Automatic annotation (TrEMBL):
Protein name: SLED domain-containing protein
Biased composition regions of type Acidic residues, renumbered to the chain: 725-740
MBT repeat residue intervals: 47-147, 155-260, 270-375, 383-480
GO biological process: negative regulation of DNA-templated transcription
Keywords (A to Z) from UniProt: Nucleus, Repeat, Repressor
Pfam hit, one: SLED
Organism in which the protein naturally occurs: Eptatretus burgeri
InterPro entries: Mbt, PcG_chromatin_remod_factors, SLED, SLED_sf
Length: 876
C-alpha cells in the first residue's frame, strides 16, 4: 500500500482536489512568491529594520534567543580541547594549552599546569596566532617547555604532560591548518558537497542531496537525480537540522535509500538507481564530524502503536489536531499520522522522535488555552477528547513519553523577527510573535503576499532568525506590504461597519485572522469559544476614566472571533481611549483569585512615555462575554452598555443620557489660566466662589435646566468637548480622581443633586472649650507639594460633594458673620481677654481620624466649615 504524502511547498501536491480551500491558498501564495523571487524591487532593498521598529513601536527578538544561529557562528573548537601555543614570549618555544571558551574566531586559552587558576588566561585569534595541534613541536624538533611562571610548580613536567593529555581531546589539525582554519561551522558546508536527507514523512528513508547554495548556514538542497529543471522541488533547510546527515549515515542507521515520494514519479526507477550509484562511485569528500556536533542527540522513546496525541499539522502548521502513532521503527523514531475520519482520506504522516516539538500530550491545548482542531470528518464542532478516545477504543500517550525538560527562551509577545514562510520555504518574511504557549510560538507573517493565519513554530525552530539576518547574509527579505505598514498604527482586527462576521477560510485577510489563533479550515473556532461581535456604543455615558471623544473615534465593532483575542483587543482599545491609560489598567488588573475561570492575560499601556502592564482575567466561553462586559463597565464606572454584544442605536436602556461630567486636572509646575467648562446651569457668582475656594466640583451631575427658557439638551461631554479634554490630558501632568456622587435630594427632579450630610459623631459630656474664631481667608492654603504629589498614590475613597446652592448658602452665612463682627465696636482689651483659654483635649490630635476632626470643628465657631473640610480631607 502506497501512502499519500504531501511534501511542504510542493506545487504539484498542492494541486490535488482534496482540501481545495487550503490548496488554493497554497497555490496562490506559492505562485506569487515565485514571481517576486525573480526580481527584487527597490522598495524591498530599501527596507530598514530600525525605521520599521521605530514606526511600529515594537522591539526585536534578542539574537541570543536563536541558538541555532549562535551555534552556526562557532569555529569548531569546544572547551577542553588541547593544542600547542607559544610559551609566553619565548620565540620558538611552545607549551600545551586548553580551550576555556570560544567566541567566534577568538579562543580563551589556559596553559597546562594552572589547573583552575584563571588569572593567566589569555585570548588569541585563530588566524593570527601560532596555534598547532598537539605533537606538532615534536615533529618539527622544537622545544616544549612551560612558561617561567609555571616552571617551579612541578618537578617532572614530562610525567605531568602524560597525565594531562591522557584521555584529553586534542584539537583536530583541520581546525588549525588548511582551508577550514578559522572558518565558522556554517561555512564548512560549501556548494557541491553531498549530504543525506532523512525523509520527514515516510519511515526510515534517506536520500542523497547536493548543496546548491549556502546562505548563512541555510542550505538549498537538490535531490540526487534531479536537475535545474526540477528546482521547484529543492529543499531549504538550516545545516543543523536533525534531518541533515553526513553521506553514508543511512547505511549505518539501517535506513532505506529511497527517493522521496513527492519526486519519485518524476523519474524512472532505473534513473534513480543510476544516480544513486554515481554519487557513491565518485567518492566525494565527506564533511568533518565537527559540522554536526551541535545537532541534538536523539533519546529513546516509550511510544506504542495506537497511542493518541496532539500534533501540529506537518504541511500546514496553522493548527493542532488529534494524531495517532501508527508505527514504531526503533527505540528512537516512530511514525505519526494526522487523524482523518472521512472514507476517502489523505494520509499526512511524519517521522518523529521523543524531542520532536510538533507532538504534544493529550489535553495540552486545553491546559494552555488553545483549541484543538477536530479531525476531518468529525461530526461535532466541539471536540471532546474523552468521547473521542472512547469511540476510537484507544488510549492517550502518557505525559512521560514526551519531552519533560522545559524550554527556556527569551521571546515575548509582540517581538519582531524573520521567519520562513511554511507555504513557500524559499521566502523569509517579516514576522511578529502574536502568542506564546510554553514551547510554541504563533507567528504572523507580515511579508507574505497572501495573508493567512498565524503559523505555529517551536521556540527552538531553525526556520526563524533574528532581525537583520537576511540583510547580513544577502538573502531577500519579504517586507510588510504597504497596507500592513499603515495599519500598524491602527487596529487590524476591527471589522468594517458593514461586515459583522469574520470569514474563517485560510485565504481571508489578516484583519479577521488576527482574532483567532487558527482558521476554521483547520478546525479551530468552536461555537462555545467564539466571541460575538463587541460593539462600542459611544453615545453612552463614558464614566470618569474614558474620554468620550476618543471612544467616538474607535471602530464600531470588534469581532467575532476567539474570545480571548477579541476581549484582549477590546480592552486595549478602551485603555488607549482613557484620559490616563495607566489608571484604567490599574482598575482592570486582577486582584486576588480569578473569578471567571478564564485565562490571565498581560495587557500593556503607554502613558507619558512610560510603559505599564497588568494581568487581567479574560473569559474564554461565549456565554460569559455579556456579563464580563457589564462587570467591566461597572469597574470603570461607565454605562453598562458602553461596550458589549448589544448595539445601542437610539436611546440607552439605562437612560445614561441624563448623566454628564466635568473634568478637572492638576498641573504641578507653572500655573495656567486655563478654565475648564462648568456644568450647565451654574451661575457666575457660584463660579467665582468656587474659584476663590479652589474647590473641585462633583464629577457627575445631572443636567440642569437653564432658567432663561433654554434647556441644556447637549451633554457637556460631547465629542467636541472631549477633544479639548485631550489637550488638557497633554498639558496637565495629573488628573483628578473622579467618582460618582451618591445620594439625591427631592430636588433632583429639577436637576440639582444634593449631598448626604456627614453624620455628626456623638460628643462626650464635658465642658466645651471655646476656641477663638478663625479669620476667614480668600482661599484655603495650598497643599504642600509632597502631599499633592502623593495624593494620586493614595487609595481613592468615595466621597460626597455639596451642591452649588449649599456652597453659596454657606458662603453667604460666613460673609454675613464677618460683616456683623465688623460692625461691633471694639472694646478695650481686658486682662481676661488677653489671657487665652487653655485648650484641653481628651486625646492626641495626631491620632484623630477625619470624623474626629469634623466633630471637633462642629463644636467650635467654625462649624459652617465642617462640610468643606470633610470634602477637602477626603480628597487627600
Amino acid at each position: 500500500m502506497v501512502e499519500s504524502v504531501v511534501e511542504p511547498g510542493c506545487v504539484e501536491c498542492a494541486s490535488r482536489p482534496k482540501f481545495a480551500g487550503i490548496y488554493s491558498t497554497v497555490d496562490g501564495m506559492k505562485l506569487e512568491s515565485m514571481e517576486s523571487d525573480g526580481s527584487c524591487s527597490m522598495e524591498e532593498m530599501e527596507f530598514n529594520w530600525e525605521e520599521y521598529l521605530d514606526e511600529t513601536g515594537a522591539i526585536a527578538a534578542p539574537p541570543t534567543a536563536f541558538e541555532h544561529v549562535e551555534n552556526g557562528l562557532q569555529s569548531g573548537f569546544t572547551p577542553g580541547m588541547a593544542l600547542e601555543v607559544l610559551s609566553g614570549h619565548e620565540p620558538g618555544v611552545y607549551w600545551v594549552a586548553t580551550v576555556v571558551t570560544t567566541c567566534g574566531e577568538l579562543l580563551l586559552l589556559r596553559y597546562a599546569g594552572y589547573g583552575q587558576d584563571r588569572h593567566a588566561d589569555f585570548w588569541c585569534h585563530v588566524l593570527t596566532s601560532e596555534l598547532h595541534p598537539v605533537g606538532w613541536s615534536a615533529q618539527h624538533g622544537l622545544p616544549l617547555r612551560p612558561p617561567r611562571a609555571l616552571q617551579e610548580r612541578h618537578g617532572d613536567w614530562g610525567n605531568f604532560l602524560v597525565q594531562t593529555l591522557t584521555g584529553a581531546r586534542a584539537a583536530p589539525a583541520r581546525l588549525l591548518e588548511g582551508p577550514q582554519r578559522g572558518k565558522e561551522l556554517m561555512h564548512w558546508v560549501v556548494p557541491g558537497c553531498w549530504l543525506e536527507l532523512q525523509d520527514a514523512h515516510v519511515g526510515l528513508h534517506a536520500w542523497p542531496v547536493r548543496v546548491e547554495e549556502n546562505i548563512g548556514g541555510r542550505l538549498r538542497l537538490r535531490y540526487c537525480g534531479l536537475g535545474p529543471a526540477e528546482a521547484r522541488h529543492d529543499q531549504w533547510l538550516f545545516f543543523l537540522m536533525p534531518r541533515i546527515r553526513p553521506l553514508g549515515w543511512g547505511c549505518v542507521a539501517r535506513c532505506s535509500l529511497e527517493p522521496p515520494s513527492s519526486v519519485r514519479s518524476l523519474k524512472l526507477e532505473q534513473h534513480w538507481r543510476q544516480a544513486l550509484g554515481q554519487v557513491y562511485e565518485d567518492q566525494p569528500s565527506l564533511l568533518p564530524s565537527e559540522v554536526f556536533k551541535d545537532q541534538p542527540e536523539i533519546r529513546s522513546n516509550s511510544f506504542g502503536v495506537g497511542m493518541k496525541l496532539e500534533a501540529v499539522h506537518p504541511a500546514f502548521p496553522f493548527g493542532i489536531s488529534p494524531a495517532t502513532v501508527t508505527k514504531v521503527f526503533n527505540d528512537k523514531f516512530f511514525l505519526v499520522e494526522m487523524d482523518d475520519l472521512r472514507q476517502e482520506k489523505t494520509s499526512w504522516n511524519f517521522v518523529c522522535h521523543v524531542d520532536s516539538p510538533g507532538i504534544l500530550p493529550v489535553h495540552w491545548c486545553l491546559h494552555n488555552g488553545v483549541h484543538v482542531s477536530p479531525p476531518q470528518g468529525y461530526s461535532s464542532h466541539d471536540f471532546d477528547w474523552a468521547e473521542y478516545l472512547k469511540n476510537c477504543g484507544t488510549e492517550a500517550a502518557a505525559d512521560y513519553c514526551f519531552r519533560q525538560t522545559p524550554v527556556n527562551h527569551d521571546f515575548q509577545e509582540g517581538m519582531k523577527l524573520e521567519a520562513v514562510n511554511p507555504l513557500s520555504p524559499s521566502d523569509i518574511c517579516v514576522a511578529t510573535i502574536t502568542h506564546i504557549r510554553k514551547q510554541l510560538l504563533w507567528l504572523h507573517l507580515e511579508g507574505a503576499k497572501s495573508p493567512g493565519p498565524d503559523c505555529i513554530v517551536p521556540v527552538d525552530s531553525m526556520d526563524i532568525f533574528p532581525v537583520g539576518w537576511c540583510d547580513s547574509n544577502g538573502f531577500p527579505l519579504k517586507k510588510p506590504q504597504k497596507s500592513i505598514l499603515t495599519s500598524q498604527k491602527k487596529i487590524a482586527v476591527v471589522q468594517p461597519e458593514k461586515q459583522l462576521s469574520v470569514p474563517l477560510s485560510a485565504h481571508d485577510g489578516s484583519k479577521s485572522m488576527d482574532l483567532t489563533l487558527l482558521s476554521s479550515e483547520t478546525g479551530l473556532g468552536a461555537a462555545r469559544y467564539t466571541c460575538p461581535t463587541i460593539y462600542f456604543n459611544h453615545r453612552c455615558f463614558s464614566g470618569p476614566y474614558l474620554n468620550k471623544g476618543r471612544i467616538a473615534e474607535l471602530p464600531q465593532s470588534v469581532g467575532p472571533g476567539n474570545c480571548l483575542l477579541v476581549l484582549h483587543e477590546v480592552l486595549s482599545l478602551l485603555i488607549n481611549a482613557a484620559y490616563k491609560p495607566s489608571r484604567v489598567l490599574r482598575e482592570l488588573q486582577l486582584k486576588g483569585q480569578p473569578q471567571w475561570g478564564g485565562r490571565e492575560e498581560t495587557i500593556k499601556a503607554k502613558y507619558q512615555g512610560k510603559s505599564y502592564r497588568a494581568t487581567v482575567e479574560l473569559v474564554r466561553n461565549a456565554e460569559q462575554v455579556t456579563e464580563f462586559c457589564r462587570r467591566t463597565c461597572e469597574r470603570l464606572e461607565c454605562c453598562p452598555n458602553l461596550f458589549g454584544p448589544a448595539m445601542v442605536t437610539t436611546e440607552c436602556p439605562e437612560n445614561c443620557s441624563i448623566l454628564t461630567k466635568t473634568k478637572y486636572t492638576h498641573y504641578y509646575g507653572k500655573k495656567r489660566n486655563r478654565r475648564v467648562g462648568r456644568p450647565p446651569g451654574s451661575s457666575s457668582s457660584s463660579r467665582d466662589a468656587a474659584r476663590k475656594r479652589k474647590k473641585r466640583r462633583s464629577c457627575f451631575v445631572q443636567k440642569k435646566k437653564r432658567v432663561g427658557g433654554t434647556t441644556a439638551d447637549t451633554p457637556s461631554e460631547s465629542p467636541q468637548n472631549s477633544v479639548a479634554g485631550d489637550d488638557e490630558d497633554e498639558d496637565y501632568d495629573d488628573e483628578e480622581e473622579e467618582s460618582i456622587s451618591e445620594g439625591y435630594s427631592p430636588s433632583s427632579a429639577d436637576g440639582c443633586p444634593s449631598t448626604p450630610e456627614v453624620p455628626t459623631p456623638p460628643i462626650p459630656d464635658k465642658k466645651r472649650l471655646r476656641v477663638p474664631p478663625l479669620r476667614l481667608r480668600a482661599s484655603p492654603p495650598a497643599l504642600p507639594r509632597p502631599l499633592a504629589l502623593n495624593r494620586a498614590k493614595r487609595k481613592r475613597k468615595v466621597r460626597a460633594f455639596s451642591s452649588d446652592e449649599e456652597e453659596q448658602e454657606v458662603q453667604k452665612q460666613m460673609e454675613h458673620k464677618v460683616e456683623e463682627k465688623a460692625l461691633v465696636p471694639k472694646e478695650a482689651p481686658t486682662k481676661k481677654a488677653e489671657k487665652a483659654d487653655t485648650l484641653k483635649l481628651d486625646s492626641d490630635p495626631l491620632q484623630w481620624s477625619v470624623a474626629d476632626v469634623v466633630r471637633f470643628i462642629r463644636s467650635t465657631d467654625c462649624a459652617p466649615l465642617s462640610n468643606i473640610f470633610h470634602e477637602q480631607a477626603c480628597l487627600l
